[in-house]
What we know:
Layout: E1 8-13, H1 18-29, H2 47-61, E2 71-74, H3 78-89, E3 98-101, H4 118-124, H5 126-135, H6 148-165, E4 170-175, H7 177-187, H8 192-200, E5 209-215, E6 223-231, H9 233-237
Parallel strand pairs: 1-4, 2-3, 2-4
Antiparallel strand pairs: 1-5, 5-6
Helix pairs in contact: 2-3, 4-5, 6-7, 7-8
Amino acid sequence: MQHRWPERLWIVRHGESAGNVARDAAHAAGLDMIEIDMRDVDVDLSPLGERQSQALALWFAGLPEPERPEVVLASPYVRARRTAEIIRASGGCEPEHEFVIDERLREKEFGILDRLTTKGIRELHPEQAEFRRILGKFYHRPPGGESWCDMILRLRSALDTIGLRHAQRRVLIVGHQVVVLCLRYLIENMTEDEILAIDREGDVANCSVTEYRFDAGKGKDGGLALARYNFTVPLEEAGTPVTSEPDAKVAAS
């Protein structure tokens, strides 16, 4: 059967980053700002994030070769790209398979709220805290930043490209927490209320796996069926701590 879906799609959040660690420190100290002395795009994995990525790489490498990713797509942010590179270098997919950096998979942009904690937003930009309360996180766009809807627009385009270039292949995406959630919204044709309810259940864990498999019986032309979400067994089996801190850009995505 010819179709425009991947045979299998894995969506992975990057390993723990130095920004995740800095965010925790800022909250513990009651600070307004998260102390990171570089662009967010350049924030690398923490030592634990490296271990998490390695554990996930070994899990992918342990799959039968015909079940491993054939295509790897990654956000250009260092922490996501590095996670993807570790998976690739450690046997999670064959080195000659396609590896693509796609800017549409980048982190949500927060504009003037960049690097602020929740406390910092309330104290430095109370009007934005109020706008977010009124509009909700799905539609609120801070000045210079993005709403979830803005992200969904670019991710819709990314999914279209996957359908055109990688149909009927096994595709791995390495991105960020909100990327995972917004792709679920798109693939499963969710409503705002449905995806925000999932978001409220808890953060997407670092190096967790969300997996879809093609189901020919799903709709007229088939579709992707969710096989697992926020799957952390690869880390647990390796004895690697599971973390789920939001990124350092802002305390509440």
